[in-house]
Design brief:
Blueprint: H1 18-39, H2 49-76, H3 88-117, E1 127-129, E2 133-135, H4 139-142, H5 146-183
Antiparallel strand pairs: 1-2
Helix pairs in contact: 1-2, 2-3, 3-5
Length: 198
């Protein structure tokens, strides 16, 4: 363990690209915003519920699009390796957390989109991204009979919610690990992901 007051140094080969870092923080900010919208839904003034839900959907679709861009960038731009000083167990935990986060940032928006598409009233309530841009529902769910739709709508909603709970846990562990390395181990992983500075 390094001295807490010892400065942290880092060379460019240890840093993520500016594009990867920007996508990381943008996705993180949108996820946090969507979590806040989901958890505060009951506290908004009467009549605002529909607007809050539609904004939640719009942000979710945006996260899905950014997640695709992030994955394509990662495939074509190899990320920097973790510092060799990290114990094997911590390396494994970090890679597992990253894998789970990638799965979740795809699974949560997709399950939400499917949940919305199975809504019985979907046909009479067109979806618009940020109240402006028409966005299609998933045709498979739209074409189902009303009874099946109703069952799937409930099940997909529960799946969407539970995936959100898993995300809370993984995000907590991800942030806790980053803070440990930053302030206790003095092996910064946060600065590897900053899109500015040296």
């Amino acid at each position: 363990m390094r001295n807490f007051l010892e400065p942290i140094t880092m060379n460019e080969s240890q840093r993520y690209t500016r594009t990867a870092a920007s996508l990381h923080w943008l996705i993180a900010a949108l996820i946090i915003l969507n979590v806040i919208l989901a958890l505060t839904d009951d506290f908004w003034p009467e009549g605002w519920e529909r607007y809050v839900i539609d904004l939640h959907k719009s942000i979710g679709i945006t996260v899905l699009g950014l997640a695709i861009a992030r994955l394509l960038w990662r495939v074509t731009h190899r990320p920097p390796a973790l510092p060799k000083s990290f114990p094997t167990l911590e390396r494994g935990a970090a890679h597992t957390a990253h894998f789970l986060l990638y799965v979740l940032i795809f699974a949560i928006p997709l399950s939400g989109w499917a949940h919305d598409s199975a809504w019985i009233a979907a046909a009479s309530h067109p979806m618009k991204l940020y109240f402006l841009v028409p966005w299609p529902r998933i045709g498979y769910f739209m074409a189902l009979d009303p009874q099946t739709k109703d069952v799937l709508h409930t099940q997909l909603g529960e799946l969407h919610t539970w995936l959100g709970y898993v995300l809370y846990v993984v995000l907590f562990l991800h942030v806790a690990g980053a803070l440990k390395h930053e302030f206790i181990d003095r092996e910064s992983v946060v600065r590897r992901m900053l899109p500015w500075g040296k």
